[in-house]
Fold this sequence. Notes:
The chain is an alpha/beta fold. Helix content is 26%, strand content 32%. It is built from seven helices and 16 strands. The radius of gyration is 19 Å and the shape is globular.
Amino acid sequence: MSHAQNSYTLLDSGNFRKLEQVGPYRLNRPAPQAIWNPALTEIKWADTHAYYHRSSSGGGKWEYKSKLPENWTINYHGMTMKIKLTDFGHLGLFPEQGPNWDWIKDQIRKADRPVKVLNTFAYTGGSSLAAAAAGAEVVHLDAAKGMEIWARENAKLSKMDNLPIRWLVDDVTKFINREIRRGNRYDAIIMDPPSFGRGSNGEVWKFEDNLPSLLELCSQIISPEPVFMLLSAHTPGITPLTLENLLADLTGPFSGTMSSSEMIIPEQSSKRVLPSGTMARWYNGVK
């Protein structure tokens, strides 16, 4: 299998859909912002292994055009990630985060000192593995046990299961409150909160309602000389500037550089890029 066949490629987008090559398999999934016309022909778009239908109730289901394994792996930005088609239409990978993983590694290596990282809403562990691979000590925190298991699998697949990562299943607010009481501090915080979710004991999370107060708590666990902060989101209506303003509340006491932008995935079939969420980054250097 060639490298291209064992990685991720966005082949095309349009008509509210995206056509993706994920390892050896071709998938057709929703892309709400892709209101333009596709670049590839209908015949190319029809040549897929699986198609995800989103229902009006918010759920959805996969339609399989051919038999797929229960899961498979791809190599992406220096890591081996397990891919599995979930009921929500997710794969266990948000490919737009790949450049952020590279940025995380760069910030940790440039720090040239021990760095302690807290990765919240940590999903299947891409950011945790990136940070640990660059030499950081990492706390990986997610409220879902299934995601924590998946992240550990990715660590093993990537031959990174011996790195200093502490795997935790917990509600993020409760955990950070305990860290405040313990006096624990972190040099970097990574946060990719969902639009809506539930904690490990059913606690309700809503982005607009809960994120500002969570960032206020985070301000109490930042070390005196932080290295970086990364805040990303896939919540409709949340702009890069919104995230930058939120992150500024957290980084205000420190001198450094802030930037924000859309997260994007370049298309193979055209010069377009597909907008895929937003992010804000702060680091303790200058441009």
